[in-house]
């Protein structure tokens, strides 16, 4: 299968092999006529859409970070807030989506800012639970930068809880991973949480 180094619209030019036939059967199973005009190309669209939604399986952390790890002085917190994410829950294969906030305290190395968004996409574009995406992002930042601390906070809305099941439209889920100084030092953790809260309140 062709792979693209970063997740982009190009991932939708591919089809997940075999998925279009399955989507055709799926349409029949729910009582639809896969041959009716509006649905004729749907199996191919589904196969392409899922190529994009699961593109993270075919990328590595190195693909996401590229060569954007730089040497730098300074040991103040760097915070990239409000990175939107879209993922698919592994229990129902329905979307969950929201925002990720990532902070770290450098120890000689910094990362190009856009790469945090690429790391979020790398782990979101898979079947996931929110807790695991959060941990994987924190692990990735640790692996790339070996910083003095990493904090990741994610807020997500799960459609499997909104459009089916318990049908709670207004609930959201917050998950976090705190490492190094963010785990050990209360002031550092509070600095991160209050910076993130400021954004939440202003929404
Ligand atoms: N911890 C966690 N749970 C999730 C996530 N996404 C979905 N779930 C939950 O996974 C659980 C699956 O529970 P099951 O009882 O096996 O499935 P179900 O009968 O469809 O459950 P209901 O959603 O309660 O109808 C549900 O409680 C979902 O809310 C996630 O990212 N993290
Ligand atoms: Zn679910």
UniProtKB/TrEMBL annotation:
Keywords: GTP-binding, Hydrolase, Metal-binding, Nucleotide-binding, One-carbon metabolism, Zinc
Top-rank EC class of the record's enzyme: hydrolase
Chain sites annotated for binding Zn(2+): 89, 92, 160
E.C. number: 3.5.4.16
Domain annotation GTP cyclohydrolase I: ranges: 23-196
Keyword match Hydrolase: yes
Any Pfam family hit: GTP_cyclohydroI
Gene3D superfamilies in UniProt: 1.10.286.10, 3.30.1130.10
Catalytic activity: GTP + H2O = 7,8-dihydroneopterin 3'-triphosphate + formate + H(+)
Keyword Hydrolase: yes
Pathway named in the protein's UniProt entry: Cofactor biosynthesis; 7,8-dihydroneopterin triphosphate biosynthesis; 7,8-dihydroneopterin triphosphate from GTP: step 1/1
NCBIfam families recorded: folE, PRK09347.1-2, PRK09347.1-3
Family under the similarity heading: Belongs to the GTP cyclohydrolase I family.
Subunit field text: Homopolymer.
Protein's name in the database: GTP cyclohydrolase 1
Gene, per the UniProt record: folE
């Amino acid at each position: 299968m062709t792979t693209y180094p970063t997740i982009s619209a190009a991932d939708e030019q591919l089809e997940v092999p075999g998925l279009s036939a399955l989507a055709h059967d799926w349409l029949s199973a729910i009582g639809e006529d896969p041959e009716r005009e509006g649905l004729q190309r749907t199996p191919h669209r589904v196969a392409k859409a899922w190529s994009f939604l699961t593109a993270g399986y075919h990328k590595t952390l190195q693909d996401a970070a590229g060569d954007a790890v730089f040497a730098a002085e300074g040991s103040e917190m760097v915070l990239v807030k409000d990175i939107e994410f879209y993922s698919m829950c592994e229990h129902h294969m329905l979307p969950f989506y929201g925002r990720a906030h990532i902070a770290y305290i450098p120890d000689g190395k910094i990362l190009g800012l856009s790469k945090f968004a690429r790391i979020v996409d790398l782990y979101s574009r898979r079947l996931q639970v929110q807790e695991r995406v959060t941990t994987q992002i924190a692990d990735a930042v640790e692996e790339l930068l070996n910083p003095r601390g990493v904090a990741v906070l994610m807020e997500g809305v799960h459609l499997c809880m909104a459009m089916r099941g318990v049908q709670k439209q207004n609930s959201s889920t917050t998950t976090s991973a705190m490492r190094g100084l963010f785990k050990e030092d209360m002031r550092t953790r509070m600095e991160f949480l209050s910076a993130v809260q400021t954004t939440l309140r202003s929404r």
